[in-house]
Predict the structure.
Amino acid sequence: MFGYIKGIVTEIFLNYVIIENSDIGFKLSTSQFTNRKLEIGKEAKLYTKLNVREDDISLLGFADRRELKMYELLNSVSKVGPKVAFSVLSTYDTDSLQAIINNSDATLLAKSPGVGKKTAERIILELRDKVDKKAVGMQPSIYNIFEADYDEAIEVLISLGFSKMESSKAVEAAKAENLASDTSEIIKISLGKLSKI
């Protein structure tokens, strides 16, 4: 129905964004990988896929064609729906995910929220012959396993009266030190950073 949507990013949330085009605000479900590439007030181009279910019709947005293709592959696996597919794409970038599948590393894949060991094994079994084989030699790395905690911490700091820019910078500083292990600790460290500004 739509190949892509190009417009101004007006809002960014944890699992979706709003892009304005011709005075219409399009809500697109997105991965955190895509969200980190966007900036409020800037123009963006997201490749799209229409998701139709009995109780919902939604538009999905992807930063590039490769992420869209990987989503379609994940969603083609039995018992893997849009929510799980986005969870995987929010944990690993496309290259790392291809390497994990080619290396048959179900343990690493199962680190994605909502993905158990059996689901991870099923994904690997069904997609091993469909992903890029050149990714075999890559060293897969966790792309975003704690991003939900970081995003939640930013939202809490904003609710405390800090600007989004201040909150994001403080959380990024906490992340860079690699000391925080959960949301409450991220917030504590970030507040310490903010108190020195």
In short: The first strand starts at residue 4 and ends at 12. Confidence is low (pLDDT under 50) at residues 140-145. The chain is about 45% helix and 20% strand.
